[in-house]
Amino acid sequence: MELQRKTIAKAIVVVFVFNLVVMGAGAWFAYQEAPPIPDEVVGPDGDVVVSGDVIREGKTVFQKDGLMNHGSILGNGAYYGADYTADALDLKVQFMRNYYAQERYGDPYDQLDSADQAAVADVVKSDLDDSYEGGAIRYTAAEVYAHEQVRQEYVERYHEGDHERGVPANMIDSEEEARAFADFAMWTAWFSHTDRPDGTHSYTNDWPYQPGAGNDATAASMTWSVIAMVLLVAGAGLGIWLYKSVELPEPSAEDITVPEPGDVSVFPSQRAALRFVPVAAGLFLAQVLLGGLLAHFYIERAGFFGIESIFGVPILQLLPFAIAKTWHIDLGILWIAATWLGAGLFLPPLLTGYEPPKQSTYIDVLLGAIVVVVVGGLSGIWLGANGYIDGSLWWILGNEGLEYLEVGKLWQFGILAGFLIWAGLAVRGLKPLLDKEPPYGLAHMILYAGGSIALLFTAGFLFTPETNIAVTEFWRWWVVHMWVEGAFEFFIVAIVGLTLVSMNLLSRRSAEKAVMLQALLVMGTGIIGVSHHYWWVGMPDMWVPIGSVFSTLELIPLVFILYEALGQYRAMSGESFPYRLPFMFIVASGVWNFVGAGVLGFFINLPLINYYEHGTYLTVGHAHAAMFGAFGFLALGMVTYMLQLSIDAERWDGSWLHAAFWCWNVGLVLMVFVSVLPVGFLQLETAFTGSYAAARSVAFYDQPLIQTLFWARLPGDSLIILGTVIYAADLVRKRFVLRQSADDPSVEDMAVAEGILGDD
């Protein structure tokens, strides 16, 4: 079966419009069906317990003080602290049981016999199994008592500090703000156990699992998990059939001329683009060092290998988990993005032999702007979380406080501006190709992929700290998931296609067809696939079937990418192929993409599994394997390719990068499969047999077996850190052997440009 490029382009347009309609309708439903913030919560005597304004203030405190990167809300955030929704619901059940036990029997609940405990538990369950029909939320006397107790607990925990939980003193600045945060957490607990009007389950589809509140997995979770398993088999078969049926030439190094690195000139703009690499490497090194600290915080919650007690250095106060986690996430995104931006500006001259006037100067300006945004954003996070930025400026200049969107809005605008400047520079560099190829050409695909990253980032500007948390999460996942499962995957296949063409392994026409087909599959599954993040956050029930179907179908493009990686491995397996080392990274990216995003991602996205697993270490394993394994290795492969072209062949030494490659791969395998996933499976078992709150509790993490598994992460983390140190040191070493750039570039200076420009 042979597909024409124009046919695939038309299909992409249809799928794009379909996605726009579905997700646009979803946005409208998000506002209509979000859990209501009442004007008042009142007790049985009509006294006001809390107002809607205070609940909104509590969400502001939650973001301002970075609590989403200490614990999580509705299962989303960090897994170090409690999930505030599950914790508040669990505490609510406990305090209500004690209230009724004292009222009826005069003793605490734990001291009652089993029959009396069962009677009290039934009363609490009956109180919480209620629906909401509008107006003020009406508490029972037991709920009023529980609410007050949770307020006090959160003041002691998050304002006064709790080192056993890894909470520094004054994490929340005042008692009043800590109480407001408790009110916000209790509101999320309320809509997690309260049925929608005329519904049979709560706003969160009865998540989190808490039998004492009547929360258990719904029938839809089971039904659609079974359907997803059927679709898995069908989707895998469809992916293999498509790959075998569609005529897509595989890359080959036989009987063609692969340009030797020394035969390719380096232009001034490429030398400028190469400057992105050491900046990104510095961010990468800082990220992995913070990752080691974060892993150790699970063992020693108030220190680091005894430094605090030996030297009196308050590690927890100077660098709390929440700030370290925030920087760790942001640095990961920034170093990968910076590398991709540099690669996107390095590759065009290889294809065009064209150097726009002052292109290198403009690239230096872009790099400088990125450095300013990085320093400003990371500094703002620390200043904002520590209360140095008051008033409304905290979320503009400081920290917005939402996972993956932590930096203030000003710095987010800077990132968006950086993408737009990059697009403009890419257009200048690719102009000879853009002028002669159709709108679905390879150069256009690169711009579409980069533009989609910028476009989706704008969803992060559609809410404020006062916006309903369910609506906030709806838009936040547009950025986070659609980046990872949509725009980033699109960028991967486009960059790999561009690289294959620059090496003469594929014709431009063949690469265009492959990129377009994979982009079609990515767009057709990954965009709407974001909806599996909406199951438990207060969004409408319709997302359960939609999310189940499209999350499962996300496997199809990953099968394509895996097969492409294997084909690329065959292409570079010969000893005479000069770019074996860059391709090792690119192939590893494809394999890890399938393992991390495909295998581990599919497993945790089954609705019934996700109900219990949501926000556990199984997600940590999926995230690290997918983010670093897929996107990180691609970035590092591009760096290796750029360096090999920029250094004289007789002075090229890839031994250090080869060593770093194996340190990273072995380290990631050890970290994910020896430590992280076993902890996740034990958490899943605890959630099955107890409650979700128990699986996220300090008591769970402090078990001897879990602590042993945390220590078992040390070899893997150490290898990843070692690989990054070797990589950074090698960049310093290679800085002194870079070739001089061509002063007066032309098409003839590029070994591949002439053939590409003539390939129509």
From TrEMBL:
Record GO terms (molecular function): cytochrome-c oxidase activity; heme binding
Cited Pfam families: COX1 (PF00115), NorB_cytochrome_c-like (PF22085)
GO biological process: aerobic respiration
Cytochrome oxidase subunit I profile domain: residues covered: 474-673
Positions of transmembrane segments: 12-31, 222-243, 276-299, 332-351, 363-385, 410-430, 442-463, 483-503, 515-536, 542-563, 583-604, 624-643, 655-681, 710-729
Keyword Chaperone in record: no
GO cellular component: membrane
Keywords of the record: Membrane, Transmembrane, Transmembrane helix
Keyword Transmembrane among UniProt keywords: yes
PANTHER family: CYTOCHROME B SUBUNIT OF NITRIC OXIDE REDUCTASE (PTHR10422:SF38), CYTOCHROME C OXIDASE SUBUNIT 1 (PTHR10422)
Name recorded for this polypeptide: Cytochrome B subunit of nitric oxide reductase
Annotated organism of origin: Haloferax prahovense (strain DSM 18310 / JCM 13924 / TL6)
